[in-house]
Amino acid sequence: MPNGSDRSRLGFVVSKRLGKAVSRNRVRRRLREALRRMPLEMGWDVVVIARTPAQEASFRELAAALEQLLTRAKLLARGPSREQGEGDRR
């Protein structure tokens, strides 16, 4: 949803069905890193819900799935990609 701000906010939902805390936190860290590397449009609230297959997925598979979803939602920024570390999206 648009948030009317110049920043995007990201939220992650990782259910206990994914396993114990170590597994859930690993999935959350991988999702956060994959999204950090993507040039998101500013001014959106995004909630990512991890499903059971995310536990077995590699980092590359998670990043590819996120890129596909954000492309479909038209939330990837157009133009040159942002360098790592520029700006804070949280």
Main attributes of the structure:
two-stranded parallel ribbon, 90 residues, Ribosomal Protein S5, domain 2, single chain, 13% strand
Short description:
The protein has 90 residues and is an alpha+beta fold. The chain contains 2 helices and 2 strands. The protein has a two-stranded parallel ribbon with strand order 1-2.
Report on the architecture of this protein.
The protein has a single domain, classed as 2-Layer Sandwich (Ribosomal Protein S5, domain 2), CATH 3.30.230. The protein is built from 2 helices and 2 strands. It has helices spanning 21-36, 59-72, and strands at residues 9-14, 45-50. Strand 1 (9-14), helix 1 (21-36) and strand 2 form a beta-alpha-beta unit. The chain is globular.
Report, as a whole number of angstroms, the end-to-end distance: 15 Å
Class by SSE composition: alpha+beta
**CATH domain class name:** Alpha Beta
β-strand percent reads 5-15%
Strand order in space, largest sheet: 1-2
Number of strands: 2
Number of domains: 1
The helix tally amounts to: 2
Helix content: 25-40%
Q: CATH topology, what is it called?
A: Ribosomal Protein S5, domain 2
**Sheet with most strands:** 2 strands, parallel
Would you list the SSEs in sequence order as H and E?
EHEH
Question: Which runs of at least 5 residues are low in confidence (pLDDT < 50)?
Answer: 81-87
CATH hierarchy: architecture: 2-Layer Sandwich
Rounded to the nearest angstrom, the radius of gyration is: 13 Å
What global shape is seen? globular
How much is the average pLDDT? 86
